[in-house]
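User: Reviewer 2 asked us to show a designed sequence for the structure in our supplementary figure. I'm pasting the structure tokens here. Could you produce the per-position amino acids so we can include them in the response letter?
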């Protein structure tokens, strides 16, 4: 059997592969957007079905988005923002400040 490795070692190996950093960053963005939408939906006391109705989406699409399963377009983010009674703000940040 092979030598056991720590998660940190395994992660470092995976992240060293070509394109892994970009894929990781895209997944992080999807997750954070979905989490933000879910939290705001819950603050408003809406179900996924109600949010779907407000945005013209299907409930399954809302669920998938909240789970970080899809990368939205700007128009979709605008629809979600309006349905969640929020204003969409898109920013560019220097890499040293982004986390």
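Assistant: Here is a per-position design you can include in the supplement:
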């Amino acid at each position: 059997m092979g030598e056991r490795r720590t998660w940190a070692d395994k992660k470092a190996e995976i992240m060293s592969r070509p394109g892994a950093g970009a894929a990781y960053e895209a997944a992080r963005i999807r997750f954070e957007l979905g989490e933000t939408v879910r939290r705001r939906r819950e603050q408003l006391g809406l179900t996924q079905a109600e949010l779907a109705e407000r945005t013209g989406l299907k409930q399954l699409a809302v669920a998938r988005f909240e789970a970080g399963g899809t990368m939205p377009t700007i128009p979709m983010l605008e629809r979600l923002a309006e349905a969640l009674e929020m204003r969409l703000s898109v920013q560019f940040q220097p890499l040293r400040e982004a986390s």
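For the response letter, you might also mention the following. The chain has one domain: 8-83. Residues 20-43 form the longest helix (24 residues).
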